[in-house]
Amino acid sequence: MQPSSRIAIVGAGLAGACAAFALHRHAHVEVFEATEAADQAFRAAGGLFHPLMTRRARPNWQHDAALEALERLLAAVGDRVPVRRGLLRVAFSEKQAQDFREAARTYPHFVQWLAPEEAKERFPQVQAPYGALWIPQGGAVSAARLIEVLLEQSGVPIHRPVRVVDWKEEPDGVRLHTDRGAVHRFDYAILAPGYGYQAHPELARLPFQAVKGQVICLQRPPSLDTLPLVLANVHLAPYGDQVFVGSTYEPAFTDLAPSEAQTRWLLDEAARWVPEVSRSTVVAALTGVRVIRPHRPLPVLSPLPGRRRLWLFSALGSRGLLYAPLLASWLPEVLERPERLPEAVRLD
Ligand SMILES: Cc1cc2nc3c(=O)[nH]c(=O)nc-3n(C[C@H](O)[C@H](O)[C@H](O)COP(=O)(O)OP(=O)(O)OC[C@H]3O[C@@H](n4cnc5c(N)ncnc54)[C@H](O)[C@@H]3O)c2cc1C
C-alpha cells in the first residue's frame, strides 16, 4: 500500500479504532464518527475476552491468532488500559459441567477444571454448584478506554460529530457525503458503523441482525473486594469500586431504553452465582446493540458485494475484543488483495 493512500474509517467504535490503529503507519487515515461522546455498543460491553467463548467451551475460530492480536494491541497501549487477567467460567447446569470437564481434558493449556469444592475454596464469594473452569488467558478491559487510547495513539484526524450519509464508488476512489453537506474523497472507505448499518440501504439488506443488550452497574460492597471475573449465564466484572453485571440478549426490541424488568433479571441471575450482589445498590443501567450474522456467527471484514474500494468491518457479535484486533491487523495486506481474506469473513 502506498503511504499516500487515503483511507476513511466510518465509525469510531471498536472496529473503527482497531482499523485506525492498524492502518495509521501505512496510509493517510481519517475517521468519521456520528456521535459526540462514546455512543458505541461498547458503552454497555462487559469487556470480557477468552478463547472458549462458545456455550460448550469449544475454542473459537482462529482463537490463537485472535488472542495474539489482542495481546499485541494491549502491549502497544501499555498500562494506559488496565487489563484484568483470569476468568472463572461457572457451569450453569450439570450438562454444561460435562462439556467443561471435557474442555479441560482436551485443552489443558487453556483451562483448568475446578470441581465445586475446589471452586468454593479458591473463590468463596462464588457459588459454583456444578463446578467451573478457570481460564488464565481470559480477562477483561474497559473497552471504552481501549478505543479512546487506540484513537489517540493513532494520531489520526477524527471528524466528530459527523455522520456519513452516503457514498459513491468511482474507478479511482470513493466519495463520502456527510450530514454537514461536505464531500470527501478517499482511495478506500472502511465502514464500521455497528448498529448504524440499518440506516444505509446498501447495508440494511445484508443478512445481519441487531440484538439489544443491557448491563447494570452496582456499587461494590467491601465483601466483594476479591471477586474474580465471573461468567455464567451472566457475567460479573469488577472495575474499581463497581461491579458490572450483564448482559441481556434481546433480539426483539423496540427501543434502546434500559428496562426495570431486565435490571431485576440481571440482579437475580447474578445473585445465583454471587449471593452478595443482592445487597448491592444499582447505580446505572446501560444498553447497547450487537450486530450478528445469525446464520454464520463470524465477524465480517470484506469489500461490499460488487465493490472494491468500499469495505465493511462489522458483525463482531459479542466477541468484539477477540476478533476486532485480529481482523484489523489483516487490513494493511488485504485492502489491495482481498483474495487473501479467509473465506469465513467475506460477504460473497
Ligand atoms: C450488552 C453488550 C455486552 C457486550 N459484551 C462484550 C464483551 O464482554 N466482550 C466483547 O468482546 N464484546 C462484547 N460486546 C460486543 C461489542 O460491544 C461489539 O462487538 C463491538 O462494540 C462492536 O464494535 P463496532 O465498532 O462494530 O460497533 P459499535 O461499537 O457500535 O461502533 C460503531 C460506531 O459507528 C458510529 N456510526 C454509525 N453509523 C455512522 C455513520 N453513518 N457515520 C459515522 N459514524 C457512524 C456509531 O456512532 C458508533 O460509534 C457486547 C455488546 C453488548 C451490546
UniProtKB/TrEMBL annotation:
It comes from the Bacteria. Residues 6-331 form the FAD dependent oxidoreductase domain. One of its GO terms (cellular component) is cytoplasm. PROSITE patterns: PROKAR_LIPOPROTEIN (PS51257). This is FAD dependent oxidoreductase. It comes from Rhodothermus marinus (strain ATCC 43812 / DSM 4252 / R-10) (Rhodothermus obamensis).
